[in-house]
TrEMBL record:
InterPro entries: Antitoxin_Phd/YefM, YefM-like_sf. This is Antitoxin. Belongs to the phD/YefM antitoxin family. SUPFAM superfamilies: YefM-like (SSF143120). Gene3D superfamilies: YefM-like domain. NCBIfam families: phd_fam. The lineage of its organism: Bacteria, Pseudomonadati, Pseudomonadota, Gammaproteobacteria, Candidatus Competibacteraceae. It comes from Candidatus Competibacter denitrificans Run_A_D11. It comes from the Bacteria. Antitoxin component of a type II toxin-antitoxin (TA) system.
């Protein structure tokens, strides 16, 4: 893996980031001491994101979930729910 000094990384950041995104990670060093590793994210493309229902069947909520702690909440806030 290539090590780039911080000054060179600042002057060539766009090119280096583009290469890292294509699978060529690199390390940024300051005074010869490695500081950070830059590499592509393993994230889904925007069209592949699935949010709603992503844990379907993995979580069980009790039937009275919406009533849990009701008396405590009413006591704390002094009103009817």
């Amino acid at each position: 893996m290539r090590t780039i000094n911080i000054h060179e990384a600042k002057t060539q950041l766009s090119r280096l980031v583009e290469q890292a995104a294509k699978g060529e990670p690199f390390v940024i060093a300051k005074a010869g001491k490695p500081l950070v590793k830059v590499m592509a994210l393993d994230a889904p493309e925007s069209g592949q994101r699935q949010r709603l229902g992503f844990m379907a069947g993995q979580i069980d909520a009790p039937e009275d979930f919406d009533q849990m702690g009701r008396s405590e909440i009413e006591r704390l806030f002094g009103g009817e729910a």
